[in-house]
Amino acid sequence: MHGLRPTITSLHGMVAAAHPHAAQAGARMLADGGNAFDAAAATAAALNVVEPFMSSLAGEGLATMWVAAEKRVRVLDFVPKIPSAFPVDRFRERAELERGALPVGTPGNLAGWCELVRTYGRKPLSEIFAPAIALAEDGFGLAEFGVAEIVEQAPLLKAYPALYDNWAKAYLPAGDVAVGAVLRQPDLGATLRALATKGPGHLYGGELGARIVAHLASLGGAMTLADLADFKPVWREPLPARYRDLTVHVPPPPCEGFQFLLTLRILEGLDFKASAHNGVDHLDQVYRAIRLAAGLRIAHNNPPADKLAELLSDASIERLRARVRDGAPISGPTEQWMAQAAEDPAHTTSFSIADREGNMICITQSLGSPFGSGVVVPGTGLCLNNFLYWADVQPDSPNRSRPGGDLLMCMSPSISTRDGKPVLALGTPGSYGILQTQAQAFVHHVDFGLPLQEAIEAPRARLWDGRFVQTENRVAPEVVAGLAARGHEIEAFDEGWTMKVGGMQAVAVDPATGLFTGAADPRRDGYVATP
């Protein structure tokens, strides 16, 4: 044994999530007669409690799923549009939108969870939210990643006096912030109880929504009751692309997940058979493909269907493959239209679930930055997102955001099928790195044959604007030197394991045997649970 995590399998379903308690909440739904969609909502609600720094029913997200009864992949988009009164002309750079009331986007997660359950689930909200309510009211012991996040963010949020007191009341446990310190969130428990009874209308046009809007207004926010009341999750057709013997499905634009598919399409025409795993040739080709795909996504942001088809066409992809093969250094943006400084990796979470009825789902949802906007609504236990930090407010950008327009989101929850059957659900957090690190894991798993858990554990890198690359220091120094010689401005992180390259969770199924395999990322508090 190599000292890392073992492979976990089951014939009765699987939940892979970013915290053990959340994975257990989903597994409990499966054990109690619920399906993958009930389990997804239960897992999401529990994550709101146990990783409040990156999960909230007031966040936003996307789900990609295989619906067994319909034998098809579907996408549920619960990323609302930019608030109608958002004063975009007030800003010149995204750094102005990191904290406070103005970067708060309309909450979408709760609506997404409830739409999943309404359409495909079978459990009432009272049962689905029960594990989360218990965790909030009884409390839970902080794990290592939660301690690190609270310790890191407390002094940063203290610089915002209008936000800090409400934040500290919600998230600082009695006594020291340490592993095992018990965090109780009675206000959040009461909010979840009210939602279980009154349904999502309590937020979208109801009393809870009015409370949120009033608090934001007191802090100078722009979100209105109409933004809340008008929001409805949108069902979309997935965007597919072939990779080896798989068809990989992700959300379509305005989601930016097509960068992930562009990368895979480029890599599909390259041969890794002669390359050493984690060697110079392997990593050079992957990094070059990622950078080209990122540049194309930025140049053609939110493309219409005909343009997207052209970008993914054989002719377009072959030109990009030729650029990978030519060996000349590649320089370009990986974030937004203009070069951006290296940023926080964002506070997003992803989880994957499958049930024995054949359903499979991958959800990626987020608060934006750590603890989102830093705005905690008094008496509710809700921390609000800062998703407008991901809006493009640069005055000269061709992708500049507008009030009431689409909020483009760099998420890519994926479902892969083989011969028309679902075989893999995989997603990760990590801001614009999401679109990079999922491709790296696919190459580890599909091309080099690593078991799913080992593919997630394998070293990953984060590419930044220009030629800058940071890799986990488990990549051999001579490989880093070889990559530098090929034009990558590369350095190793101080750590062998860093959340800056995501926190990936995945579930695979063998259609022949029905055996589920779960994999969870040790870079965060990820865990797998079975019913």
UniProtKB/TrEMBL annotation:
Q: What is this protein called?
A: Gamma-glutamyltranspeptidase
A Pfam family recorded for this sequence:
G_glu_transpept
Q: What is the lineage of its organism?
A: Bacteria, Pseudomonadati, Pseudomonadota, Alphaproteobacteria, Hyphomicrobiales
InterPro entries in the record? GGT-like_enzyme (IPR052896), GGT_lsub (IPR043138), GGT_ssub_C (IPR043137), Ntn_hydrolases_N (IPR029055)
What is the superkingdom listed in this entry's lineage? Bacteria
